[in-house]
């Protein structure tokens, strides 16, 4: 197709509006009240943080972009806005109600209700063999250490040699510890500090050493 011309599906993707912040916040707070330690926050990320996450994705790299912990879809929307093709985006959210909400909102996307701890199996199940970026909002700070380590191992496994992991944290330190970076052959860098978020957040990007 000549550049600049959109087919019907792409045209529709460009027009998908973000869920209103108010509506998203309402659903997010309800989810956090149900299971605070599983959701890991009481407010959805700001647009500024979502954009900072999306800016770590290299659109020219082959492979799927995998979003983990989509919540009410703020980062999902930023990824689409940044140019990630809907067909190339896989979204994973474990909470059933949030999953139903975003599946309804982004009805054209591949949104799975699954646990990131089974990431390699989940991706194999839908035929994804190459991943260019894992974009994660998973709440590592409130997870038991063993679960966090197991998920980070999965993330490192699926990116192969060339992919990246993009992760935000409210903490001052790397959300993947030096021990886990060494174990998983990763190198991490602080990509952005987003002071406009409540609370301020750091975005980290990890690559294979
Ligand atoms: C801090 S919220 C971030 C939501 C959204 N991306 C944002 O930035 O506003 C974390 C999300 O990760 C989801 N989550 C937590 N643990 C998960 C897991 N093991 N697998 C998949 N999703 C998970 C939660 O249900 C929640 O929606």
Give a quick summary of the entry.
With 209 residues, the chain is α/β, with parallel strands linked by helices.
How many strands, what sense, and barrel or not for the largest sheet?
A: 7 strands, mixed
Radius of gyration: 16 Å
Task: Report how far apart the termini are.
Answer: 38 Å
Order of helices and strands: HHHHEHEHEHEHEHEE
Class of secondary structure makeup: alpha/beta
Bound molecules: S-adenosylmethionine
Low-confidence stretches: 1-12
Shape: globular
CATH architecture: 3-Layer(aba) Sandwich
List the helices and strands and how they pair.
Blueprint: H1 8-15, H2 21-34, H3 36-39, H4 47-54, E1 64-68, H5 74-82, E2 89-93, H6 96-105, E3 110-113, H7 119-125, E4 131-136, H8 145-158, E5 164-169, H9 178-183, E6 186-194, E7 201-208
Parallel strand pairs: 1-2, 1-4, 2-3, 4-5
Antiparallel strand pairs: 5-7, 6-7
Helix pairs in contact: 4-5
The structure holds S-adenosylmethionine.
The site of S-adenosylmethionine (SAM) has 23 residues, from helix 3, helix 5 and strand 2.
Structure description:
- The protein is α/β, with parallel strands linked by helices.
- It has one domain (8-208): Vaccinia Virus protein VP39 (Rossmann fold, 3-Layer(aba) Sandwich).
- It is 38% helix and 21% strand.
- It contains 9 helices and 7 strands.
- It has helices at residues 8-15, 21-34, 36-39, 47-54, 74-82, 96-105, 119-125, 145-158, 178-183, and strands spanning 64-68, 89-93, 110-113, 131-136, 164-169, 186-194, 201-208.
- A 7-stranded mixed β-sheet has the order 3-2-1-4-5-7-6, with helices on both faces.
- Helix 5 (74-82) links the parallel strand 1 (64-68) and strand 2 (89-93).
- The radius of gyration is 16 Å and the shape is globular.
- The N and C termini lie far apart (38 Å).
- It binds S-adenosylmethionine (SAM).
